[in-house]
């Protein structure tokens, strides 16, 4: 995030890449990466008020940084709408990778990306389109 924050006007896609790529890299990262992704998705799904508060405290500073960068990049989108879009994208970030293997068994057949770089670019396409909807 630091390098994106230093840029005068970073592109939306680069803000999202800086925010989301580290999490997605767990798919190909350490041996425990996929287990961590599934565990976080489980916490997110089956949470209590205490778990929600714990998760929120853990990401609050980083999500505020992302929100500020995106607000500067898209000042025509209200903060309320931007925050809702960020919440939707976070749900996609948490749950999508946890069930990534399902892309090989869709009604369209096997549509799984060939590698993690391709996956990241498709994910950024999808999130960038949603996060910037209503801009302008």
Can you describe what's shown?
With about 140 residues, this protein is an all-alpha fold. The protein is built from 6 helices and no strands. Helix 2 (about 10-25) crosses helix 6, helix 3 crosses helix 5 (about 80-100) and helix 4 (about 50-75) packs across helix 5. The model has no long low-confidence stretch (mean pLDDT about 90).
Topology:
Elements: H1 2-6, H2 12-24, H3 33-45, H4 49-73, H5 79-98, H6 116-131
- Helix percent reads 55-70%
Q: Count of DSSP E strands? A: 0
Bin the strand percentage: under 5%
H/E element string? Answer: HHHHHH
Poorly predicted spans? none
Descriptive tags:
136 residues, mainly alpha, 0% strand
Provide a quick synopsis of the model:
The chain is mostly helical. Helices cover 68% and strands 0% of the residues.
């Amino acid at each position: 995030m630091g390098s994106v924050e230093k840029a005068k006007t970073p592109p939306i896609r680069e803000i999202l890449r800086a925010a989301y790529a580290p999490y997605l890299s767990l798919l190909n990262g350490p041996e425990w990466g996929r287990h961590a992704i599934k565990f976080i998705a489980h916490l997110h799904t089956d949470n209590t008020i205490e778990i929600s508060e714990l998760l929120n405290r853990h990401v609050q500073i980083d999500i505020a940084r992302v929100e500020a960068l995106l607000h500067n990049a898209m000042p025509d989108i209200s903060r309320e709408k931007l925050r809702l879009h960020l919440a939707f994208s976070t749900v996609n970030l948490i749950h999508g990778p946890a069930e990534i293997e399902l892309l090989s068994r869709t009604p369209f057949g096997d549509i799984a990306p060939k590698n993690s770089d391709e996956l990241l670019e498709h994910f950024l396409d999808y999130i960038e389109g949603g996060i910037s909807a209503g801009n302008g």
